[in-house]
């Protein structure tokens, strides 16, 4: 046993939706239930730097998080929450500098000093190009924003974690444990090298930078392997800090990480099984004292169905509290020390990760490996292999590909009430708030502040002071990001699809669908063409990429242009490519707004005979509405058999062409 009981980790739930006022009420309820930190979810327009009135924001406002357009929204979001006493994590990357500036000014208005603020801005832009897709600027400019923020906080907000390097989203995109370790640490090296070489932080303060770096990690259901992964992470990070950066203080070299356990493995089928999955995943990051998470947030059992309700989030919080306060976990030293099995697995992971890190460094580092498409292709290929193992039955998912017989679940007896829906008025309210905010501010002061930001961006000075000036003048998220888009330009990341290997052979099922595609192509007088489209701001492209890879494997010609397309752009591509089917992938909940726009656009373009199929987290009631309005098929996470899905798409095409 330990001399004294270990302190519990910070307990969070990831929350935010609809409006700043609604999210504030949710935060205060969660804090009253024993939550010990805040984890803020921002909506996609906020994450990608658009105001609610931008065309790309239509249908996305308030869907997957809280919309934040200006200082007034942040005041409302943290009303009656003393920020000097709060540990706040913000899942924000491309616009991280903007959100921290808003947070700092709102805290100062409460009377808090910058050096009292504790929390984290995620600020890991590299993984946005690989998995989440909420980048706004090209990689080099994005890295400048990240490192400017780090340099600023070390001197001015010293208790803040300015970057939270995320292996979480890499695992969601298909990364193996070795890839998760290697790609995350390669990102850390890219960022720290840039800070070290940038001249903004003196050599004697560089240790302060290193010890403020934190990580955000994923934990899957293979909790022994996940425990070993975290012990490997500790060893590898210590080596990087000591031998690459010369940090001699062992305390400064500690791996400081928070975790949200795996959402990728949560199932729509028999969703009650997700509860034990979440508990097992939590054990992977808490059992080993020497590699224990500093903060934990758990998904809810029904996330594969839609937006969790407050009660669902409470259930996940209670899981943490039972483990921390009822079990004896925190009373012992590390229970894995001395285990030959654990040490052998850790050695294996360390060796594999170091080999991959060396490969990325030989290419020129993480940013070059992003721009070349290497990292994305590796993730898409790993994800394809995982899906193939599930489809073949080699990897068992209880309730999905084995033990499928089930009693009706009382948890989803009325599925439409088992999730929370966002108030449809949230978007119009955000638009009205934006108009009101712009009307009451000093527009000349805003223009002057934005001009200062523009000049700073053209030069080399740190962008945080100009950003703070924009906040105080009353600029909006879209205006701040718009100026930087003018200077830095836009960017479209590699999709990873063209160079990725899907199934090798694939057996009889693949062969049968290939034959079906070939015969239908012959009947229609040309190879079947499938357009895979990602409308709106939803950057979670893992599913769309896997559909594109499998469609190519069975013989389709696939048109996939990546994320963040308007319905008009998708329709234009369908016309230009003369496609036989349009497949739309939407995970942000904006399907009821965006899908009808594509269907209507195809009709107006004279392509009413081109069927539209939809994939994503679509509640049953919404699916029925979409099918009634002209959509040919709706696929949800329960449709894990991609080969079967491709066969169904061919049937849809045949029906549309009266074959």
DSSP, total strands: 15
Q: Compute the separation of the termini in Å.
A: 72 Å
Rounded Rg: 24 Å
Largest sheet: 5 strands, parallel
Quote the beta fraction. 5-15%
The poorly predicted ranges are none
**Percent range for helical residues?**
40-55%
Structural class by sheet pairing and helices: alpha/beta
> What topology, given as strand order, has the largest sheet?
1-10-9-8-7
What is the count of helical runs? Answer: 25
**Rounded mean pLDDT score:** 92
Quick one: overall form? Answer: globular
What does this structure look like?
There is one protein chain. The protein is of the alpha/beta class and 659 residues long. It has 25 helices and 15 strands. A five-stranded parallel beta sheet has the order 1-10-9-8-7. It has a five-stranded parallel beta sheet with strand order 2-3-4-5-6, with helices on one face. A five-stranded parallel beta sheet has the order 12-11-13-14-15, with helices on both faces. Helix 11 links the parallel strand 9 and strand 10. The longest helix has 24 residues. The protein is globular and about 75 Å long. The model has no long low-confidence stretch (mean pLDDT 92).
């Amino acid at each position: 046993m330990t001399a004294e009981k270990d302190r519990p980790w910070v307990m969070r739930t990831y929350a935010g939706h609809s409006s700043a006022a609604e999210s504030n009420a949710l935060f205060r309820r969660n804090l009253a239930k024993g939550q010990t930190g805040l984890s803020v979810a921002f909506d996609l327009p906020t994450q990608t730097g658009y105001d609610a009135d931008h065309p790309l924001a239509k249908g996305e406002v308030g869907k997957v998080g809280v919309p934040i357009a200006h200082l007034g929204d942040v005041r409302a979001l943290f009303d009656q929450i003393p920020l000097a006493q709060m540990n706040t994590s913000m899942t924000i990357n491309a616009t991280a500098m903007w959100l921290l500036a808003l947070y700092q000014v709102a805290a100062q208005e409460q009377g808090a000093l910058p050096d009292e603020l504790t929390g984290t801005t995620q600020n890991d832009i590299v993984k946005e190009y690989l998995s989440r897709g909420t980048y706004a600027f090209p990689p080099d400019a994005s890295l400048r924003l990240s490192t400017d923020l780090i340099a600023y906080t070390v001197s001015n907000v010293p208790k803040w974690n300015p970057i939270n390097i995320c292996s979480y989203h890499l695992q969601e995109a298909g990364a193996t444990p070795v890839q998760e370790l290697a790609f995350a640490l390669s990102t850390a090296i890219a960022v720290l090298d840039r800070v070290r070489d940038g001249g903004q932080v003196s050599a004697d303060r560089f240790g302060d930078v290193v010890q403020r770096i934190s990580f955000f990690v994923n934990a899957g259901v293979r909790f022994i392997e996940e425990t070993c992964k975290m012990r490997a992470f500790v060893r590898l990070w210590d080596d990087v800090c000591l031998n690459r950066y010369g940090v001699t203080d062992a305390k400064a070299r500690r791996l400081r990480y928070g975790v949200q356990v795996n959402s990728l493995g949560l199932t729509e089928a028999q969703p009650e099984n997700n509860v034990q999955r979440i508990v097992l995943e939590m054990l992977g990051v808490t059992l080993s004292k020497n590699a224990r998470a500093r903060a934990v947030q758990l998904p809810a059992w029904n996330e594969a169905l839609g937006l969790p309700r407050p009660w669902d989030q409470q259930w996940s919080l209670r899981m943490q509290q039972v483990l921390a306060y009822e079990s004896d976990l925190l009373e012992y030293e590390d229970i894995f020390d001395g285990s030959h099995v654990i040490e052998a697995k850790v050695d294996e992971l360390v060796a594999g990760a170091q080999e991959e890190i060396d490969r990325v460094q030989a290419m020129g580092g993480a940013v070059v490996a992003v721009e070349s498409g290497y990292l994305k292709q590796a993730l898409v290929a790993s994800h394809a292999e995982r899906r193939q193992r599930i489809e073949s039955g080699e990897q068992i998912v209880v309730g999905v590909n084995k033990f499928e017989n089930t009693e009706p679940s009382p948890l989803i007896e009325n599925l439409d009430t088992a999730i929370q829906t966002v108030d449809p008025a949230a978007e119009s309210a955000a638009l009205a708030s934006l108009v009101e905010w712009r009307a009451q501010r000093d527009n000349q002061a805003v223009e002057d502040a934005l001009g200062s930001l523009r000049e700073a961006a053209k030069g080399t000075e740190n962008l945080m002071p100009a950003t703070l000036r924009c906040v105080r003048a009353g600029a909006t998220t879209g205006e701040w990001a718009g100026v930087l888009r003018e200077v830095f330009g836009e960017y479209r990341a590699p999709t990873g699809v063209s160079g990725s290997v899907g199934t090798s052979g694939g057996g009889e099922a693949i062969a049968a669908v290939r034959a079906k595609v070939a015969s239908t192509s012959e009947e229609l007088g040309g190879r079947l063409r499938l357009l895979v489209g990602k409308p709106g701001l939803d950057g979670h492209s893992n599913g769309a990429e896997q559909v594109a890879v499998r469609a190519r494997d069975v013989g389709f010609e696939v048109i996939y242009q990546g994320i963040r397309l308007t319905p008009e752009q998708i329709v234009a591509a369908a016309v230009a490519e003369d496609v036989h089917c349009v497949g739309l992938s939407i995970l942000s909940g904006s399907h009821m707004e965006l899908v009808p726009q594509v269907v209507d656009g195809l009709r107006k373009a004279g392509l009413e005979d081109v069927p539209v199929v939809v994939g994503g987290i679509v509640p049953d009631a919404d699916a029925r509405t979409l099918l009634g309005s002209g959509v040919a098929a709706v696929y949800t996470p329960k449709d894990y058999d991609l080969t079967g899905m491709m066969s169904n798409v061919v049937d849809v095409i045949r029906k549309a062409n009266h074959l």
